[in-house]
Amino acid sequence: MLKRQLSVLIFSLGIIYSQNALATDWSSHSFLDPWGYPGGDTLSSNGTRTVIGGFDLDQDGAKEIIITDYFIYGVRLFEYDLENQVFEQKWRSPENLANRTAYANPRSVGVGDMDNDGKFEIYYPLSHAGEDDLQMGGWYYFEWDGVVGSDNYGETFSSRNTVEVDLCCPDPLSFTGTTEYVTSGIDIDGDGQHEHISAVRGNTAGTNRGTLIMSLIGDLYTDNGSVGFETWQNEYYIDISTHIGAYAGSPYQAIPADLDGDGTWEIVNHYWQNFCLFVIDVTGPDTYEVGSSTYGDGWWAATVPNDDVSIFGGAVGDINNDGDDEVCYVVYGDAGANEDQGNLMVLDYSSGDDVLANLQDHVSVVAENFGAFYGGIFDVDQNGYANIFGGLGGIKSAECTGGVPLDPDSYTISVIDDGTDRTPKTITITDSSGVLDTVVTLGSGVFASKVQAEFNGNAIDFDNDGKYEILVSHQGNHAKTTINYATWNGANYDTTSTLVQNERNWMIAVYEFDGDLVSVEPVNFIQPEDFTLGQNYPNPFNGRTVISFNIPVKNSVSLKIYNEMGQLIKTLINQEVISQGSHRVMWDGSNEKGQAVASGIYIYKLEWDKYSVSNQMSFLK
């Protein structure tokens, strides 16, 4: 009876929170539970720091996402299967690069076409953990092999870029790879070559810190392992200490924006030292200029005396439709301990302005209690005004409906998700002689770490229904809900505790503006371990045997028999599209020519995409 009461209670609370959490016209779809990942390839239990998506890197028409995963010191790529409405893992970074001893990284990931060959690379930083080739620090790039639909980015890296390590860190061990924001590859200076922009953040005091622009000479190849003829070069670098001096804190972001709407780029730089900002103007190929070193003119510490930061960086967009970009930041207070925490700050220039001057006059706080973590910018609700998103326990949106970016009165603020849809962390039921008292405590650690609203200026729409979406990574959630049941025995309370699964333990969620009633529906998530291959029966056998397998979604699969030397003996299924569910296939012990095979051990293997699972069987004559 108690178990049933608790089940009803948990179910009821879940319904209440899910209905109250989201704003009207928004729906949320969770599709990844970090604690539910089967097998030994376990996802980080603390959630994911970054998710990016909405692109189609292998050009097969199916959109992908990439998440960072502390557990493997790497990243995972998933592709959306529109027919089955699931995300399926297609690639993960190589296991041999996971041998890292310092810092949980990568914290961020980017995509770009650094060698301009039409094949995207995935790239992220790794800390330096030793002089072994696979432990060296730097930026690691993985190039797509160019085969449409392959999702193949290699079993080792294509190239390792150590320009930043060599620049920042006399001791390579001080390179930790703790980059919070990665700009996707962009031809920033119009020279026909994508540049890699990095906020150089050496972890050791005294190391070089600043903004670095790198580019590639040569070509990248899948699985090349940096043994080709490519060369990474330092195209431009400014050391923050020479420009700002005493306010030279930790670089957190260097983000491109067209601040004056002239069709060329500027780079807005943000540092953790009293929310320090300055601008680099890109004036031509490999040509960059900065303003004066005068406080308030060429640079500005926007939250003096408080030491604040936008911890995951800002976002760029034209929020008032005037043809030039604004940069929007949500402020993370100094350890969350001052009045700046949660402010929405906007940097805005206009056409004809000198983007290297009078910076203090172009920055303003436009809203309070807005968030604390990165939020993207895009007109997701398609009402003509860009949504500016901010994350913390929940998600908020701001729209510059009044048209003046630096005026707080121009903004309309709305709550997308108030954060109360989390399953309770603890439920304590006290039974005092039949009188029940229930106390519910919500989990307080979960937060929306990053909100992505677009990719390269294009809307995110995984299901192609014309309703735009945002992609949100979460950290700090809890896997279980603890239920405490205390019964009075006449002298004191006897307490028993039970753990139940937190059904809203999301690592990632997709929020869609759908114009309908609020609903919360799970989206299935498929991993390689969900494809299973049973033991053949009978085994051993001397006539016929049946092989069973199960696939979680309709997919193209092969089922093949090999001998112990790895030679193909018989193809039972050859790249056939098989429906979801359980299947059985008979093998009569013959080879491709119909001849009976010799007695011995044989391997049968289920193959799909780049993955396979196999078992052994014994054939006796």
Helix coverage percent of residues? under 10%
Strand order of the largest sheet: 1-35-32-29-22
* Tally of DSSP helical segments: 3
First-last Cα distance = 58 Å
Could you characterize the architecture of this molecule?
Helix content is 5%, strand content 42%. The protein contains 3 helices and 43 strands. A 5-stranded mixed sheet has the order 1-35-32-29-22, with no helix packed on it. The protein has a 5-stranded mixed sheet with strand order 2-3-4-5-36, with no helix packed on it. It is mainly beta. Mean pLDDT is 84; it is low at 1-19, 33-45 and 517-523. Strand 33 and strand 34 (493-501) form a beta hairpin. The chain is globular and about 90 Å long.
Q: What is this structure, in a nutshell?
A:
By secondary structure, the protein is mainly beta.
Annotation keywords:
single chain, 621 residues, mainly beta, 5-stranded mixed β-sheet
SSE order and pairing:
Blueprint lengths: L1 H20 L4 E7 L18 E5 L8 E6 L4 E8 L4 E7 L17 E3 L8 E6 L11 E6 L15 E3 L1 H6 L27 E6 L7 E9 L13 E9 H4 L6 E8 L8 E7 L3 E9 L2 E4 L8 E3 L13 E3 L8 E5 L13 E5 L14 E5 L6 E2 L1 E2 L8 E5 L3 E5 L12 E6 L6 E9 L2 E8 L4 E6 L1 E2 L2 E2 L9 E7 L4 E9 L4 E9 L6 E6 L10 E3 L5 E2 L11 E7 L3 E9 L4 E11 L2 E7 L12 E9 L2 E9 L2
Parallel strand pairs: 5-36, 22-29, 27-33
Antiparallel strand pairs: 1-35, 2-3, 3-4, 4-5, 6-7, 7-8, 8-9, 10-11, 11-12, 13-14, 14-15, 15-16, 15-17, 18-19, 19-20, 20-21, 23-24, 24-25, 25-26, 27-28, 29-32, 30-31, 32-35, 33-34, 37-38, 38-41, 39-40, 39-42, 42-43
